[in-house]
Structure formats: structure tokens, C-alpha cells
Amino acid sequence: MTLDLISLPVDIAIDPRQAIGIPIALIGAVFLSLGAQFQHRGVTKVEANTVAVTGGLNPRQLMLLLARPSWVLGTVMLGLAIVFQLTSLFFAPIIVVQPLGAVALVITAILNARISKVSLNRASVIAISMCVGGVGLFVTVAAFTAVDKPVTDANLLTILTVLGGVLVAFGLAFAFLRTRFQAIFYIIGAGVLYGFVATLAKVVINRTQYGNVEWLTLICVAGLLLAAALGAYFVQNAYASGPPDLVIAGLTVVDPLVAVGIGIVVLGEASQAPPWAAAAFLVAGVIAIWGVFLLSKHHPQTRP
Fold first, then answer.
1. Structure pTM?
2. CA 206 – CA 11 distance, rounded (Å)
3. By 3-state DSSP, what share of the chain in percent is helix, strand and coil, each rounded to 5?
4. Hey, CA dihedral for 49, 50, 56, 58, is it positive or negative?
5. How many CA atoms lie within 13 A of 275 on its CB side?
6. Any idea what DSSP says for residue 52?
7. DSSP labels for 106-140?
């Protein structure tokens, strides 16, 4: 059997614009790492000066965060990370640039080990390697198989409907079970919500590019802001009950997997991917998620 090189561009479309989005996303990952470290420092200082966090940060603790320079600086850096992320989404599909945030995990792990003077154990290093390796495999396959497509009204309605269900589920869980929550719940919750934030941001950018700005797009913006607000609250609670590299591990794995899942299932960004790519996506996702749970179990700073 001979390989028809002429047919390759038809089977796998490689858009040169993606080459611009990737380095922009990497810069955003650096800001994400630094922002997480500074925000974590601010949350731990507020918690040390008030009652221990059980059932979520209370309004007084949230106000005290605004008085912590480290937390404010971290918030500014996270804002810059969002700007770079949104810019990268302008150039490339979600399933290409969103997983690149895993770079922040490595940076955060190194920074946290130096600042806290707590060395990572062997199990934690293996877990981090699994997270980064799984996401790395995912983005490598996605870079050669992803395509950017216009978002239809039906696509957007599907995304908003699922997001509504997710917000209700997390809201009820927090209302009735928050005293039992540990860091892993807040991390998974924030990752899922931020996955929708990234997707809706991509939708807004896409529809704006095609001049399709109307009431449905405005609802999309409202859903984005609501998911971002609840996700940010979950992140602060995760900082209060877990180390920053564990928080970033969850966000940089769960967030892109949710966004990528929507990109594949709803937006059809992998419609031109060959069958082997689907198997590669599945294997990569399992490896990355398994790494997050191992890190939550074996990290030396994880609270029992």
C-alpha cells in the first residue's frame, strides 16, 4: 500500500494561525503559575488570622483578601493570564491552546517547593509527570487534527443548557455538602466551570469574528461571567485547603478536558481527526486525570 501524500492536507488540516496561538498560550501559563502562587499566599495569610475555613470562605474573609497585597498581585497576574488565553483562542481552536496551561503546573510545583521549603516526594513527581505527559500527548495530537469552525445557534444553546445544569448541580452540592468538601472537590468544580468559561469565550470570539452578535451572544457572556465568578470562589477555597500546585494540577487538567470535550462533541473541532486520534485523546485524558488524583493523595502538603 502506498502513501498518497497529496491527500494528507485533506485528511489533516494544519492551520498556520495555530503557530501564533501556541506561544501566546504559553505566556499565559506563566502568568497563571505566578498568579496562583501569590493568591495562595494571600488566602493562607487571611485564614491564619481568622477562623479556619470550613464550608467555604465567608464574606469577611473575602473582603480581607482585598487587603492582602500578595492576593491582589496574584489576581492581576491571573487577569493577564486570561488576556493571553483569550488572545490565543482568537488564533487557534480550544483543543490546541487550552491544554497548554499544563506548563503552569511544572512552574508552580518548582516555585512552591522553593517557597514552602517542602520537597516533592517521588509519588508527587510521578503524578505531575502524568498530568503534563497526558496533556502534552493530547495537545500534540490536537495540533495536527483540530479545525476551527463557526459556532451555530444550536451549538450555543446546547452549551448553555449543559452549563445551566452544571451550575445548578454545583450550587446544590455547595449548599448542602460544603462542610464535607476537601480541596479535590473545589479543584474539580473550578476546573469544570473554567472549562465552560474557555468554551464560551471562544464562542463569543468566534461569533464576533463572523459578525453574529445578538441576544444569544449576550446570554453567552452572562453565562461566562457567572461560571467565572463561581469558579473563582471555588479556587480560593481550594487554596485554603490544598497547595497551589495541586490546585493548578486540577485546573490545567480538568479545565482543558472539559473545554476540549465540548470542542469535540458540540463544536466539531475534531471532525477531520482520523480514528487513531480518538484513541489517543482517550488515553491522554485518562493519564492526566489519574495524575491529578494521585497528586491529591500523595502531595506532602495535602491536608487529610
1. 0.77
2. 24
3. 80, 0, 20
4. negative
5. 0
6. -
7. HHHHHHHHHHHT-PPPHHHHHHHHHHHHHHHHHHH
Distance CA 50, CA 61 (A): 8
Work out the angle at residue 265's Cα, subtended by the Cα atoms of residues 260 and 268, and round it to the nearest 5 degrees: 90
Average pLDDT along the chain, 304 residues, taken 10 residues at a time: 40 60 86 86 79 65 84 90 84 73 78 76 85 81 71 84 90 77 80 87 79 83 90 84 77 79 77 80 86 78 58
Helices and strands in the chain: count of H runs, count of E runs:
12, 0
Euclidean distance between CA atoms 146 and 263, whole angstroms: 9
Question: How many Å apart are CA 62 and CA 12, to the nearest integer?
Answer: 48
Give the gyration radius of the chain's Cα atoms: 19
**What's the CA gap between 185 and 271, in Å, rounded?**
32
